[in-house]
Amino acid sequence: MRRIKLPVHVAFIMDGNGRWAKRRFRPRAFGHKMGVQNMTKICTHAFRLGVRIVTVYALSAENLMRPKEELDELFDLFRSYFGKKRERLTELEVKINVIGDITVLPEDIQEDILRVTEETANYSEGLMNICINYGARQEIVRAVNEAVSHGRFVDEASFKNFLSTSGIPDPDLIIRTGGEIRLSNFLLYQAAYSELYFSNKMWPEFSKRDLEKAIENYSARDRRFGNVRGNDS
Ligand code: IPE
Ligand code: IPE
Ligand code: MG
């Protein structure tokens, strides 16, 4: 890629697995399986390009309404993903952090997640946040209740510490695949000034080149944050 302004934090709404599979006359579960493979490929590429933080929306809180068979298939995928030896989980030494209420997952998967987060805790080649059973509204309500239980009034700086992304800078760029132009309850608070990029590609077919195109597009944008002119223009 030519010299560009890189986002520090890129978040992905990895949508379109089911439709991608259906178009190939395959079950939705096959789409999810290829989706997980693509997640590893695309996130690794993002880190190699110099992105420091990657956040992926793997399962929304609302996705729990899906039929049990589909959820079981998704849980099986989480099982094989987090159950892998950590050397194979990420090609790079990236710290893995899981965001969302994982108590709904079978216990063995919760244990695997805990192990992976512990084993990668000191890795410093990047940070990968995986959102599972995550919903932004739920997160905000929980954060408010926590602040209240501490008997505290909050301001913007202190409120951030109650969110699951505490200590993590907001996403600079949010990429959604699958053709829908919405956030579907993803990082609503943190996305206040994120640049949004929508791709018609389904997630399993979103390529390294597609990621580069999204970053090039981001790079050309003027982020004004309400001011007259962007910082670096
Ligand atoms: C995104 O793909 C992955 C999850 C929500 C788990 P979908 O399963 O939503 O795929 P489509 O949108 O039905 O194609
Ligand atoms: C958003 O996709 C959630 C994830 C990608 C994990 P959905 O497929 O659940 O979103 P909607 O239902 O089309 O809004
Ligand atoms: Mg979808």
UniProtKB/TrEMBL annotation:
<feature type="binding site">
    <location>
        <begin position="60"/>
        <end position="62"/>
    </location>
    <ligand>
        <name>substrate</name>
    </ligand>
</feature>
<dbReference type="GO" id="GO:0016094">
    <property type="term" value="P:polyprenol biosynthetic process"/>
</dbReference>
<keyword id="KW-0460">Magnesium</keyword>
<feature type="binding site">
    <location>
        <begin position="16"/>
        <end position="19"/>
    </location>
    <ligand>
        <name>substrate</name>
    </ligand>
</feature>
<feature type="active site" description="Proton acceptor">
    <location>
        <position position="63"/>
    </location>
</feature>
<feature type="binding site">
    <location>
        <position position="195"/>
    </location>
    <ligand>
        <name>Mg(2+)</name>
    </ligand>
</feature>
<feature type="binding site">
    <location>
        <position position="15"/>
    </location>
    <ligand>
        <name>Mg(2+)</name>
    </ligand>
</feature>
<comment type="function">
    <text>Catalyzes the condensation of isopentenyl diphosphate (IPP) with allylic pyrophosphates generating different type of terpenoids.</text>
</comment>
<feature type="binding site">
    <location>
        <position position="176"/>
    </location>
    <ligand>
        <name>substrate</name>
    </ligand>
</feature>
<dbReference type="Pfam" id="PF01255">
    <property type="entry name" value="Prenyltransf"/>
</dbReference>
<protein>
    <recommendedName>
        <fullName>Isoprenyl transferase</fullName>
        <ecNumber>2.5.1.-</ecNumber>
    </recommendedName>
</protein>
<dbReference type="InterPro" id="IPR018520">
    <property type="entry name" value="UPP_synth-like_CS"/>
</dbReference>
<dbReference type="InterPro" id="IPR001441">
    <property type="entry name" value="UPP_synth-like"/>
</dbReference>
<dbReference type="GO" id="GO:0000287">
    <property type="term" value="F:magnesium ion binding"/>
</dbReference>
<feature type="binding site">
    <location>
        <position position="32"/>
    </location>
    <ligand>
        <name>substrate</name>
    </ligand>
</feature>
<feature type="binding site">
    <location>
        <position position="20"/>
    </location>
    <ligand>
        <name>substrate</name>
    </ligand>
</feature>
<feature type="binding site">
    <location>
        <begin position="182"/>
        <end position="184"/>
    </location>
    <ligand>
        <name>substrate</name>
    </ligand>
</feature>
<feature type="binding site">
    <location>
        <position position="28"/>
    </location>
    <ligand>
        <name>substrate</name>
    </ligand>
</feature>
<feature type="binding site">
    <location>
        <position position="66"/>
    </location>
    <ligand>
        <name>substrate</name>
    </ligand>
</feature>
<dbReference type="GO" id="GO:0045547">
    <property type="term" value="F:ditrans,polycis-polyprenyl diphosphate synthase [(2E,6E)-farnesyl diphosphate specific] activity"/>
</dbReference>
<keyword id="KW-0808">Transferase</keyword>
<feature type="active site">
    <location>
        <position position="15"/>
    </location>
</feature>
<comment type="subunit">
    <text>Homodimer.</text>
</comment>
<comment type="similarity">
    <text>Belongs to the UPP synthase family.</text>
</comment>
<dbReference type="InterPro" id="IPR036424">
    <property type="entry name" value="UPP_synth-like_sf"/>
</dbReference>
<keyword id="KW-0479">Metal-binding</keyword>
